[in-house]
Amino acid sequence: MKRKIRKIIILIIIAVIFYFILNNIIPLNKGTELYDGIVKVNNSNEYTKEELEKEVNLVLVNKNYGLSKDYKPKELVIPDILFTSDISREEKHVDKRIVEDLENLINSARKEGIILLGNSGYRSYETQNKIYKKRVKSEGEEMAEAYVAKPGFSEHQTGLAIDITNEENFLTQGSREAIWLEENCHKFGFIIRYPYGKEDITGIAYEPWHIRYVGKEAAKYIYENNITLEEYLGL
Ligand SMILES: [Zn+2]
Fold it and tell me: Domain D-alanyl-D-alanine carboxypeptidase-like core, which positions (predicted)?
């Protein structure tokens, strides 16, 4: 009996070590499936690989357009910015293509006395699935659906979006940080993805902290015309 218990303990220790290695040592940027597997849920067509390589910045993810569980950005990188203390290693990653502009945004804000921190960047399908299931368990399906994107329908899976916060970890409407982001993020290719008063179009209530990379040209147009990504894409 004692032997059995010892065996079990050893197995648990091995499992914990493996889990640690998988989470911390093996880099995340091992994505093999690049842009295959992004699905337009509204119709049966998938985005073509060419379409996505050309315009991946404009990939639309909302309640109607989702990503398959295999979709993973080509290269995930941790940007050289400050993060809040309580986020996972996975969430510190973003798509490599947005790193430079994101770092420039954060540094530019700092020069104006605005301290911005990363709060949650890339989230895998599996992570979103866990978050969603947890919420369903604690609050029921209806509440979960209202506040948490279903797996495959979170923009965080693209690696092109990141939640930004301030030193108090409380970036709210009207705060200095929210105002700065709203007025400046387009200069770096980002948009406030869920603007105030556009819930009927985006399907998501105002989120001053969630910025999404679309490239400088699209970001400027979206900002100047006060529209959403859905409107920009004519959807
Ligand atoms: Zn977000």
Answer: 92-216
Closest by Cα among 233, 214, 195 to 95: 214
List of E strands, 159-221: 161-165, 190-192, 210-213
Candidates 112, 60, 73, 92; CA nearest to 218 is 60
pLDDT digits (tens, 9 = 90+) for 95-141: 999 999 999 999 999 999 999 999 999 999 999 999 999 999 999 99
Q: Say which DSSP state 26 is in.
A: S
Q: What is the CATH number of the domain that holds 163?
A: 3.30.1380.10
Least confident piece of the model among 36-45, 97-106, 174-183: 36-45
Output the CA 5–ligand 1 centroid distance in Å.
44
Q: Is residue 16 part of a domain?
A: no
Q: Which domain holds residue 207?
A: 31-232
Catalytic residue among 46, 55, 182, 207: 207
25 lies in some domain = no
| Catalytic residue flag (residue 142) | no
